[in-house]
């Protein structure tokens, strides 16, 4: 790999103007494209100490062999040029939003001589119109079945069509009226094309003419006493109404908007977009992408502040998604023009282009980094005004929360797929073994994390994974003693205490070699929360890998405890949150796993589970302390009756509002004790 210092531009040569830059490898291929308000400030970040760079950014600058830039007049021009270059060069280190392939679509092959409608998954192809995506495969097939009642167009494959064309008789769908059988000449190509145009127009939202036409035909048939035909038209009208009802009305007005939300972790980001047209959800799409180094700032974001990483992700997504949509729209317009030149009427099938691909309203859950410039670029692409904002209240805010939940669930499902697959778990454990130089794969992994608020209510968690999946029966929770009395936050000392308490029993068991009953008895430790003797032997079994949440200081503290207890059969590492670095005791440099490796995903899941378990216990302890602190000073009131009081009234606040007589109604509380409680609460 190249050393970035070998191609670093000379000091002062990089302009301070806005512009776009390209990193090229030794073969002159573009590996990354970016933009900046200030080129000198942005590019200088890439040539700092590489150990401080994000792992993916570090890989990029070491892959590159040169850097070049282009100065532009404004930030809007920089956004446009960045998008153009990304599309032109397809750099390997730029985030690419690809369909997650989880949503099926209804496709119509308008480019074929005899178009057909069919169920489809996968990337979009030229000459095919797509509708959806739908949430389930059965929804596509149900919609197709209902549509062919009203628009009896071809749905068979090319092989089936050619076979029946040679046989001179239609298939079953042709006999039952769900296909107009162009294969045997029952309708001409132009007549079949008209049916296709009507279906495409209907799916594009032009439902009114179809409903009015069916209603008029049904009334005419009824007046002419053609009751069978009227009944068939009535069934067709019901099918149309059912298709329209499948897309529920979410807004009372004719809102055209896209709602976009992200959910991220340290490694990946999930994005969901809901397309609302005429007040209805017309489609839903989702992606899961790997986060780049530029999209993961090192500084911590305080609660209530906008996350710059999400802002940059949103900005890049808006430009790339809508830029691609406009390009795709131009291609489809060229296809329409080509069909028109062939004499095919396209007026009924071509949906109104202006304002459809880019709606007037784009609602996001966080504003992009350079919102003004992004709006200008979107308005140039749309040719009209664009309202980009974060919904604050009402129906749009409620729907945005739904989009956010979908993004969160999509990322969770994506991560579960990685660890839920046996092959993936085996590969992850093997990768961990290779990366840490272990003799065997870590079939049992334990991880600990500390949780507190400014040194108060310090607790720790210990989670256990066996064969790459959680073993919740072996989870343990600890109240930290050494950090509890002084009110100071000492994560290093807390890690040492948890490690000592976890492995002290294991060490003593190895020396004493007790029988089963003694071991179960010795294992019962008042310092360990919620444990039972029936799982003592399983929990006493040492892990092959012990993970502490933190970097070099936390690992050094745990290793000191290992040395004291003589623990040599357990591999110890620390997992730092900032850059997902793996710290090994005694090593000056961390182990960096590839961002896409199964091992890193498994380690991250274990660390996140320990964090979740620690936070839940910390909240429980904090709530218990705050709930009982007011009642602790009441003489003669023990823990049991304090708990009964809080349970009876629901909270200490409601207990204060109660009268002396109401307090006396609580089981175990007499009139005299009720008087004492009332006086202390209102002193």
UniProtKB/TrEMBL annotation:
Top-level taxon of the source organism: Bacteria
Domain (UVR): residue spans on this chain: 208-243
Location of the UvrC family homology region profile domain: 259-562
CDD domains for the chain: GIY-YIG_UvrC_Cho
Keyword set, alphabetical order: Coiled coil, Cytoplasm, DNA damage, DNA excision, DNA repair, Excision nuclease, SOS response
Domain annotation GIY-YIG: ranges: 16-95
GO MF annotation terms: DNA binding; excinuclease ABC activity
Principal place of residence: cytoplasm
InterPro entries assigned to the protein according to its UniProt record, in alphabetical order: GIY-YIG_endonuc (IPR000305), GIY-YIG_endonuc_sf (IPR035901), GIY-YIG_UvrC_Cho (IPR047296), Hlx-hairpin-Hlx_DNA-bd_motif (IPR003583), RuvA_2-like (IPR010994), UVR_dom (IPR001943), UVR_dom_sf (IPR036876), UvrABC_protein_C (IPR050066)
A GO-annotated cellular component: cytoplasm
GO terms, biological process: nucleotide-excision repair; SOS response
Cellular compartments annotated: Cytoplasm
Record bears the keyword Signal: no
Coiled-coil zones: 211-247
Function summary: The UvrABC repair system catalyzes the recognition and processing of DNA lesions. UvrC both incises the 5' and 3' sides of the lesion. The N-terminal half is responsible for the 3' incision and the C-terminal half is responsible for the 5' incision.
Family listed: Belongs to the UvrC family.
Assembly and interaction partners: Interacts with UvrB in an incision complex.
Protein's name according to its UniProt entry: UvrABC system protein C
Organism this protein belongs to: Corynebacterium stationis
């Amino acid at each position: 790999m190249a050393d970035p210092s070998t191609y670093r531009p000379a000091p002062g040569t990089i302009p301070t103007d806005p512009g776009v830059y390209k990193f090229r490898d030794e073969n002159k291929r573009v590996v990354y494209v970016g933009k900046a308000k200030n080129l000198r400030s942005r590019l200088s970040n890439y040539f700092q100490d590489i150990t401080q760079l994000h792992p993916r950014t570090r890989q990029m600058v070491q892959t590159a062999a040169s850097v070049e830039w282009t100065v532009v007049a404004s930030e809007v021009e920089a956004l446009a040029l960045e998008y153009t270059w990304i599309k032109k060069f397809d750099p390997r280190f730029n985030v690419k939003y690809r369909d997650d392939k989880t949503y099926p679509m209804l496709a119509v092959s308008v480019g074929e001589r005899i178009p057909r409608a069919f169920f489809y998954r996968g990337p979009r192809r030229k000459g095919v119109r797509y509708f959806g995506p739908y949430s389930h495969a059965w929804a596509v097939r149900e919609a197709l079945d209902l549509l062919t009642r009203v628009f009896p167009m071809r749905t068979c494959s090319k092989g089936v069509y050619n076979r029946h064309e040679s046989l001179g008789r239609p298939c079953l769908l042709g006999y039952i009226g769900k296909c107009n059988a162009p294969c045997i000449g029952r309708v001409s190509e132009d007549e079949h094309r008209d049916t296709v145009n009507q279906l495409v127009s209907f799916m594009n939202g032009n439902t009114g003419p179809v409903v009015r036409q069916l209603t008029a035909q049904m009334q005419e048939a009824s007046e002419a006493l053609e009751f069978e035909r009227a009944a068939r038209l009535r069934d067709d009208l019901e099918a149309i109404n059912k298709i329209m009802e499948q897309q529920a009305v979410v807004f009372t007005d004719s809102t055209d908007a896209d709602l976009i939300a992200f959910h991220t972790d340290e490694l990946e980001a999930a994005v969901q977009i809901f397309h609302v047209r005429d007040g209805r959800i017309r489609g839903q799409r989702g992606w899961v992408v790997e986060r780049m180094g530029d999209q993961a700032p090192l500084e911590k974001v305080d609660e209530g502040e906008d996350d710059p990483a999400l802002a940059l992700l949103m900005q890049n997504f808006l430009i790339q998604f809508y830029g691609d949509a406009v390009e795709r729209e131009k291609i489809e317009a060229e296809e329409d023009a080509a069909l028109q030149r062939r004499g095919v009427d396209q007026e009924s099938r071509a949906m109104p282009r202006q304002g459809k691909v880019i709606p007037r309203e784009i609602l996001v859950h966080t504003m992009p980094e350079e919102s003004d410039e992004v709006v200008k670029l979107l308005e140039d692409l749309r040719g009209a005004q664009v309202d980009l904002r974060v919904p604050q209240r009402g129906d749009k805010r409620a729907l945005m929360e739904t989009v956010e939940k979908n993004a969160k669930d999509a990322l969770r499902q994506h991560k579960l797929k990685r660890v839920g697959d046996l092959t993936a778990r085996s590969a992850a454990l093997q990768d961990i073994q290779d990366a840490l130089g272990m003799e065997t794969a870590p079939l049992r992994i334990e991880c600990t994390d500390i949780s507190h608020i400014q040194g108060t209510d310090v607790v720790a968690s210990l989670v256990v994974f066996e064969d790459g999946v959680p073993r919740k029966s072996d989870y343990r929770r600890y109240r930290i003693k050494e950090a509890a009395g002084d009110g100071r936050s000492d994560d290093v000392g807390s890690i040492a205490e948890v490690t000592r308490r976890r492995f002290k029993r294991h060490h003593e068991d190895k020396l004493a070699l007790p029988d089963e009953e003694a071991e179960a008895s010795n294992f019962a430790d008042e310092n360990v929360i919620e444990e039972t003797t029936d799982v003592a032997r399983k929990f006493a079994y040492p892990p092959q890998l012990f993970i502490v949440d933190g970097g070099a200081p936390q690992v050094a503290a745990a290793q000191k405890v290992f040395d004291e207890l003589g623990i040599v059969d357990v591999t110890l590492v620390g997992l730092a949150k900032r850059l997902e670095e793996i710290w090994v005791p005694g090593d000056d440099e961390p182990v960096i796993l590839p961002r896409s490796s199964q091992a890193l995903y498994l380690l991250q899941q274990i660390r996140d589970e320990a964090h979740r378990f620690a936070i839940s216990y910390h909240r429980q302890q904090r709530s218990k302390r705050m709930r009982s602190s007011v009642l602790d000073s009441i003489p003669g009131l023990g823990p049991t009756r304090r708990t009964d009081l809080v349970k009876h009234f629901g909270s200490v606040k409601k207990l204060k509002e109660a009268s002396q007589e109401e307090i006396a109604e609580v089981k175990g509380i007499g009139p005299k004790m009720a008087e004492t409680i009332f006086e202390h609460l209102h002193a």
